[in-house]
Write a structure and sequence with these properties.
Helix content is 0%, strand content 51%. By secondary structure, the protein is an all-beta fold. Strands 2, 4, 5, 6, 9, 10 and 11 form a seven-stranded mixed beta sheet that branches. A four-stranded antiparallel beta sheet has the order 1-3-8-7, with no helix packed on it. A hairpin with a 4-residue loop joins strand 7 and strand 8. The radius of gyration is 13 Å and the shape is globular. The mean pLDDT is 96.
Length: 123
């Protein structure tokens, strides 16, 4: 399995931007799809975005489409989530995940997870 560490979270105001990073170690991620999920208190873990192993295909949850952008740098063994126009409802712990499945919106398709990074958006 690949080990994942997220960074870049923090506390921001509504309308601000943040860029989350996911650093991988243990294995190269160039054969893995990468995903971002989030979980707010008392909520289930929610799909945010995913990117295919090549970076050629991306997927977004409806609530973040047009505001968030997922990307990856296989040479650096990293994935990123650029978040813009943040809203208070984006407040959650954000998790990076790696997997080899094809249904990239599904939690079950990922077998490596980071510990998460907190994002708090105040109004």
């Amino acid at each position: 399995q690949v080990q994942l560490v997220e960074s870049g979270g923090g506390q921001v105001q509504a309308g601000d931007s943040l860029r989350l990073s996911c650093a991988a170690s243990g294995r190269r991620i160039n054969s893995y799809a990468m995903g971002w999920f989030r979980q707010a208190p008392e909520n289930e873990r929610e799909f945010v975005a995913a990117i295919s192993w090549s970076g050629g295909t991306t997927y977004y949850g409806d609530s973040v489409k047009g505001r968030f952008t997922i990307s990856r740098d296989n040479a650096e063994n990293k994935a990123f989530l650029q978040m813009s126009s943040l809203k208070p409802e984006d407040t959650a712990v954000y998790y990076c995940a790696a997997g080899t499945g094809v249904r990239l919106r599904a939690i079950s398709e990922y077998n490596s997870w980071g510990q998460g990074t907190q994002v708090t958006v105040s109004s």
